[in-house]
Write a structure and sequence with these properties.
By secondary structure, the protein is an alpha+beta fold. The chain folds into three domains: 389 residues, Up-down Bundle (Na+/H+ antiporter like fold), CATH 1.20.1530; 77 residues, 2-Layer Sandwich (Alpha-Beta Plaits), CATH 3.30.70; 114 residues, Uridine Diphospho-n-acetylenolpyruvylglucosamine Reductase, domain 3 (2-Layer Sandwich), CATH 3.30.465. The protein contains 22 helices and eleven strands. The protein has a five-stranded antiparallel beta sheet with strand order 1-2-5-3-4.
Length: 636
């Protein structure tokens, strides 16, 4: 028995260490890191190096706990500002989008795998949700800087669509295992769904409040605080699930609340959770890789790959387009959200259920789901960066590298001690003053410490220690950051020159011609742009104004426009998307088509000549109305 413990521990740690070291190669060659973890599990399994792991219940149990940890960290790392911006589009994709995806994939599986429709629908439910671990890693650690609205939509969707997929999967597994048909899908099932979601939200909020309250009130060793938070998050997850709610939704909501509250030891908690989340992802993907038997893939490889391509190219884009239609996303944004529909460990985890319940075609469903995940990570995971660039959604960096360490002060949850290294070419190195509210206290220069008041002008490679509020403004990062790397398209992207957004909008009208609406006459340029952008602006937003485009170069912490650029010769997006028109474009097209033929006084139609200019649906360009975004409001 003791020898077995040593052997299992030895093999497990070797696999984890190998996965950790192999991440260096993944970063170097741009490979999806989670695909690498999965591949290591496959290679080490029964058809590879011979590690025989076939304990599905253990894999499912460990996967559930790992997913709960990942979702808590996902919520903890999501700023409330981003959540508020994209919560409704993400919520629709997490519910309606999952249903549409499951139905379409189920129909395809019915014909391609020759299984019953309800079994195909089960497969559709299993692969209907995107994977939070894969999406968060590729968007945050992948080194691509995309527009905030698109990033927030994808991250919130990936964190909230798992409960819907899990509910559908469990409901369908119960129906199939009981021998019942679709007639068992009564209103009781719908009521049960809303009950699970409601309990998940309520217990998640209560759990988040409990976490913040206990951490701030109980004085414990700082090293124990993140372990305490981790334990409480799993308590919220398990308690909610035990009373019939969605534990996964609850743990995400708890993380969201705690991460956006004034909580003691926040920096320590975040650093600890980074490591725990990485370990959870590695263990989950390795176990799921070990559980699979690649020699069984050959029998269903072709139909499984066909279903995967159907999911990537048809089911997911259609579900995303229908879900985002009411929110007037631009076509490039919708196309990117549709493409980043990465499937991962959640789908493989749910695919274990048909095997556990010994359903007919259970192994077929498991192996098919595994192949779909592999294809998704290979095709979508490897192309996210190129697709974002092709669609013009990459935003040039506004702030360069920052060398900073956050140190929490004992006895308070409201202040931190920050240590910045003065980076060459940063504004501080060039003589910019540090604001008084930052409370600089100590400077270390060439190994010698001195008070800030006696240090004189700061020099490159000095270290500066500052007391700052926990919710410090981004100004400090900008002061201590080196110049952002200049891309050859940067000037073109943000405009040839900058204008003062506090100037009256009438000056633009006088210079470039288009008439302002009566209610826009007394507004500033910033107010005009904010109104035409629907009340909220972010970096890289664009507003068409006659022959020019106004581009948001920078915003403040409260999303107020503080810098605007002008593109004198605005260019079309790099890739014209013939699909995904939004509601405004559809209304514009139908209105023009309707006005093409107008009845005259004698009852006959006054038709527009055939050679007259006709709008091309759905690619026409239209100046945005107040409160709406321009068609060209994308990264050019």
């Amino acid at each position: 028995m003791m020898d077995a413990i040593y052997v299992v521990t030895l093999v497990s740690m070797l696999l984890v260490l190998f996965a950790t070291f192999s991440s260096l190669l993944a970063f170097r060659f741009g490979a999806p890191l989670l695909l690498l973890f999965l591949a290591i599990g496959l290679i080490s399994g029964v058809d590879g190096l011979g590690v025989n792991f076939d304990n599905a219940p253990v894999a499912y149990f460990v996967g559930d706990l790992a997913l709960a940890l990942i979702l808590f960290d996902s919520g903890f790392s999501t700023p409330y500002q981003s959540f508020r911006q994209a919560v409704w589009p993400a919520a629709v994709m997490s519910t309606v989008g999952v249903l549409i995806t499951a139905a379409l994939v189920g129909l395809a599986a019915h014909f391609l795998l020759h299984v019953t429709f309800i079994s195909g629908l089960l497969l559709g439910a299993i692969v209907a949700s995107t994977d939070a671990a894969a999406v968060f890693f590729l968007l945050r650690a992948g080194g691509i800087n995309i527009r905030e609205k698109v990033r927030a939509t994808l991250e919130i969707e990936s964190g909230t669509n798992d409960p819907m997929a899990i509910f559908l999967t469990l409901a369908l597994v119960g129906i199939i295992s009981s021998g019942a048909g679709f007639e068992s899908l009564t209103t009781d099932v719908v009521i049960l769904f809303f009950k699970e979601m409601a309990l998940g939200v309520l217990f998640g909020l209560a759990g988040g409040m409990l976490i913040v309250s206990l951490v701030n009130r109980i004085k414990m060793e700082r090293g124990l605080t993140p372990i305490f938070v981790l334990s409480l998050s799993l308590l919220v997850f398990s308690l909610t699930g035990a009373i019939g709610g969605s534990g996964f939704l609850a743990v995400y909501v708890a993380g969201l609340y705690a991460g956006n509250s004034d909580i003691r030891s926040e920096a320590v908690i975040r650093h600890f959770q980074d490591g725990v989340t990485w370990l959870a992802q590695i263990i989950m993907f390795l176990l799921l890789g070990l559980l699979a038997t690649p020699s069984q893939f050959a029998a269903i490889a072709l139909p499984a790959i066909a279903i995967a391509l159907f999911l990537i190219l048809i089911a997911r884009p259609l579900a995303v387009w229908l879900s985002l239609l009411p929110f007037n996303y631009q076509r490039e944004e919708t196309a990117f959200v549709a493409w980043v529909g990465l499937r991962g460990a959640v789908s493989i985890l749910l695919a274990i259920l048909p095997v556990l319940y010994r359903l007919e075609n259970g192994m077929v469903i498991f192996n098919t789901a595994f192949i779909i995940v592999l294809v998704s990570l290979l095709v979508q995971g490897w192309t996210i960066g190129p697709v974002a660039r092709r669609l013009g959604l990459i935003v040039p960096a506004r702030v360069g590298p920052v060398d900073k360490v956050e140190l929490e002060l004992p006895g308070t949850a409201h202040h931190e001690l920050l240590a910045y290294r003065v980076v060459p070419d940063s504004p501080v190195a060039k003589g910019a003053r540090i604001p008084r509210w930052a409370r600089p206290s100590l400077v270390i220069r060439d190994g010698q410490s001195m008070r800030y008041q006696y240090a004189g002008r700061l020099r490159a490679n000095d270290y500066v220690y500052l007391f700052i509020s926990q919710r410090y403004p981004r100004l400090l990062d900008r002061l201590f950051a080196s110049q952002a790397p200049v891309d050859e398209d940067d000037a073109e992207f943000f405009g040839a020159f900058a204008i003062d957004p506090s100037r009256p909008a009438r000056e633009l009208q006088a210079a470039y011609g288009p008439e302002l609406a009566p209610d826009e006459q007394d507004k500033t340029i910033a107010e005009l742009m904010t109104d035409r952008l629907g009340g909220r602006a972010e970096i890289a937003d664009r507003v068409a104004f006659g022959p020019v485009e106004l581009i948001v170069r920078d915003v403040s912490d409260n999303s107020k426009i503080i810098s605007v650029g002008i593109a004198l010769a605005p260019e079309e997006p790099k890739t014209q998307i013939p699909l995904f028109p939004n509601l405004r474009e559809i209304r514009t097209y139908l209105k023009k088509r309707f006005e093409k033929s107008v009845p005259t006084a004698d009852g006959k139609e006054d038709s527009v000549p055939d050679n007259a200019a006709e709008p091309s649906f759905p690619n026409e360009t239209q100046t945005a109305e107040p409160g709406e975004k321009s068609d060209k409001d994308t990264a050019a």
